[in-house]
């Protein structure tokens, strides 16, 4: 059994995607996607905590002296 580096696996995957006509993200695009996902997870977790504490968004905003606007 041979060992293949993670970088080689990613390179091969990108090649296969290109050959199949599928989009291949740049490192910058991948990083941006990771950051968006992290932000989404943080927002979800904060909402969970708020609900566990039986607080409304308005109550949280008021406690932080923030302007609260309903969209």
Relevant terms:
elongated; 3 helices; mainly alpha; 71 residues; single chain; XRE family transcriptional regulator
How would you describe the overall organization of this protein?
There is one protein chain. This protein is mostly helical and 71 residues long. Helix content is 66%, strand content 0%. It contains 3 helices and no strands. It is elongated. 0% of the residues are buried. This is XRE family transcriptional regulator.
Put the structure in a nutshell:
By secondary structure, the chain is mainly α.
Query: Pairing-aware structural class of the strands and helices?
Result: mainly alpha
- The portion of residues forming beta strands comes to under 5%
Oligomer: single chain
SSE string: HHH
- End-to-end Cα distance, whole Å, is 58 Å
pLDDT < 50 stretches: none
Helix content range of the residues, please? Answer: 55-70%
Could you tell me the number of beta strands?
A: 0
What is the rounded Rg?
21 Å
Number of helices: 3
Average pLDDT for all residues? 91
Outline type: elongated
Largest sheet report: none
Biased composition (Basic and acidic residues): 7-18
Protein name: XRE family transcriptional regulator
Region (Disordered): 1-32
């Amino acid at each position: 059994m041979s060992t293949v580096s993670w970088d080689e696996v990613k390179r091969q995957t990108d090649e296969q995607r290109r050959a199949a006509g599928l989009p291949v993200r740049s490192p910058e695009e991948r990083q941006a996607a990771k950051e968006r996902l992290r932000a989404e997870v943080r927002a979800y977790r904060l909402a969970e905590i708020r609900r566990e504490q039986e607080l409304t968004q308005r109550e949280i905003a008021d406690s932080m002296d923030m302007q609260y606007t309903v969209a």
